[in-house]
Amino acid sequence: MANTQIAAAREGTVTEEMERVAKRENRDPEFVREQVAEGQAVIPANTNHDALDAMIIGRDFSTKVNANIGNSETTSDLETELEKLHSAVHYGADTVMDLGTGSDLDEIRETHLEHSPVPIGTVPLYEAVKQADSPAEITTDLLLEIIEKQAEQGVDYMTIHAGILAEHLPLTDGRKTGIVSRGGSIMASWMEENGEQNPLFQVYDEICEIFAEHDVTFSLGDSLRPGCLADACDEAQYAELDTLGELTRRAWEHDVQVMVEGPGHVPMHKVAENVERQQEVCDGAPFYVLGPLVTDIAPGYDHITSAIGAAMAAQAGAAMLCYVTPKEHLGLPDEEDVRDGLAAYRIAAHAGDVGAERPGARDWDDALSEARYAFDWREQFRLALDPDRARDSHDQTLPGDNYKEARFCSMCGVEFCSMRIDQDAREGDGDGMERLTEETNLENSPAAEVNLPPVGTHEGADIPGSEHDQAPAEPASDD
Ligand code: SF4
């Protein structure tokens, strides 16, 4: 029997999670219920994830950001993994995917779930690869066993690569970068080796039944996403998308929540087309995009190449953005990369929300601009997306306490500070140039929680093992 948010919503029930989400988004609980009932939004909330602070992913809500963490064969232990989770939440991740492929996967996953206020996603196929002697040896029984175990542990959403079919594989011939999704390449090699249809597709209804029991949300993997601009929007990508649309409807028949993953690498003039096509093919199921990177020429800066595409996708209707760090294509990200990647993606999500004219989304911008014009440096730092970064950048050249009231900074200097010159002109002029008198009050803003400072806060969250405070800290002194 379905035990899910969508089942409750379809019966007309506003759940505790819907109430919480409505508060965080500043929306009517009944609107939240309708959106979930119609599959236009998901609340990933496994019934076994007790530490969860419920959130919602959908095109008519604020844009969300996912961060990937996880160990590998060569790196990290439980303590390090908890620190990664804490960093991700601290810098503003709305969900976290644990993509661990190293040792102690169960212990790490269970500890994450014990403490995480944000939904945790996984790719169960990775654990199956670890357990089988080779990818070709993976069986449907093994896949179902791992999916059921992770569902019982409390995983909120799982990437399931069920959309890549044997008949899609020839469509990838001639691509510049072939199949770049990890799960997609594993499934393709399985089908080639065994000469059979995708095993995740074969047992899709059984997976739906497990998900319905524990309220696990599908994140339908885009195994054939383009890995370079030249492969964007090709026949292979769109053939798989059609299958993802069918799988979306099948999951809904089981009262299971669904979001659909998207590309990848897409030039700017095709980003909106990708979002619109997914929304049409998948009947409005939330679109969860990786980037997309809008150019392939900047390894080392792919948090920027992808944040450009992510902002455009968010404005066009993507519901969640999977962050990309500067280490993309180059290596395993460290904590500084996580910070840079999340900053880039929080900016993209917020810019998308402002561009889509979501209620109150611009209030944070206005409040910060007012503090800037008032030379209220402390308020400017407090309101900054990354307060520590803003303060450090200012204090590199003008560290003294007296400069926190200064009517200039070191960029233009006192003589050429345009805002000072402008203000002095307004003070001296009797008519024509008026000063702003109204101030933005963030306390009364209709904006969703994610469009208000500070980022990375959760009521009652408790993630041990990190030097960070849960909320960005105010420094003890100014010098
Ligand atoms: S000196 Fe230039 S950058 Fe600094 S506050 Fe004035 S106008 Fe802005």
UniProtKB/TrEMBL annotation:
Q: Looking at the record's lineage, which domain of life comes first?
A: Archaea
Binding residue positions for [4Fe-4S] cluster: 409, 412, 417
Q: In which pathway does it act?
A: Cofactor biosynthesis; thiamine diphosphate biosynthesis
What enzyme class is recorded for this protein? Answer: lyase
The cofactor named in the record is: [4Fe-4S] cluster
Which processes are annotated in GO (biological process)? thiamine biosynthetic process; thiamine diphosphate biosynthetic process
Q: Which residues bind substrate?
A: 68, 97, 126, 161, 181-183, 222-225, 261, 288
Map out region (Disordered) in residue numbers. 425-479
Task: Supply the InterPro entries for this chain.
Answer: ThiC, ThiC/Bza_core_dom, ThiC/BzaA/B
Residues binding Zn(2+) are 265, 329
- Any Pfam family the entry gives: ThiC_Rad_SAM
Q: Which UniProt keywords apply?
A: 4Fe-4S, Iron, Iron-sulfur, Lyase, Metal-binding, S-adenosyl-L-methionine, Thiamine biosynthesis, Zinc
Compositionally biased spans, kind Basic and acidic residues: 425-438, 459-471
Record's family? Answer: Belongs to the ThiC family.
Q: What is this protein called?
A: Phosphomethylpyrimidine synthase
Record organism: Natronolimnobius baerhuensis
